[in-house]
Amino acid sequence: MIESKDFTFLCSNCDAPLAEFLERPGESEPQKIKALCPHCGDSSFTKEISNKFYIGSTEYTSIESLEEKSDVLIIKTAQGKKYE
């Protein structure tokens, strides 16, 4: 499924909000993206994006780095406020 609206990447295990996805005008090549969870060590589900976008931090995580691995853009996050 290709995502095309603003949303939050949530951890598939603990539901922590990991990164904000903000759509911006324009299209790009479809890209698979997922975020790693610093709270429990799991990750979000992989989403396929076909728009240009911004990625932002949440109250509970900050963006540490971006890495492309096996055609998936991995958002590495660092823990901010503890998620319970």
Q: What class would the helix/strand composition place it in?
A: mainly beta
* Number of helices, where a helix is a run of at least 4 consecutive DSSP H or I residues: 0
**Number of domains in the coordinates?**
1
Question: Looking at the structure, what is the overall shape?
Answer: globular
Question: What is the count of β-strands?
Answer: 6
Order of helices and strands: EEEEEE
CA radius of gyration is 12 Å
Mean pLDDT: 91
* CA(first)-CA(last) distance: 29 Å
**Would you identify the CATH architecture?**
Roll
Low-confidence stretches: none
Question: How would you portray this structure in words?
Answer:
It is a single chain. The chain is an all-beta fold and 84 residues long. It has one domain: Ubiquitin-like (UB roll), CATH 3.10.20. Helices cover 0% and strands 62% of the residues. Strands 1, 2, 3, 4, 5 and 6 form a six-stranded mixed beta sheet that branches. The termini are far apart.
Write the layout of secondary structure elements.
Layout: E1 2-3, E2 7-10, E3 17-35, E4 47-56, E5 61-69, E6 72-79
Parallel strand pairs: 1-4, 3-6
Antiparallel strand pairs: 2-3, 3-4, 5-6
In a nutshell, what does this entry contain?
Helix content is 0%, strand content 62%.
What are the defining features of this structure?
Ubiquitin-like (UB roll); 84 residues; mainly beta
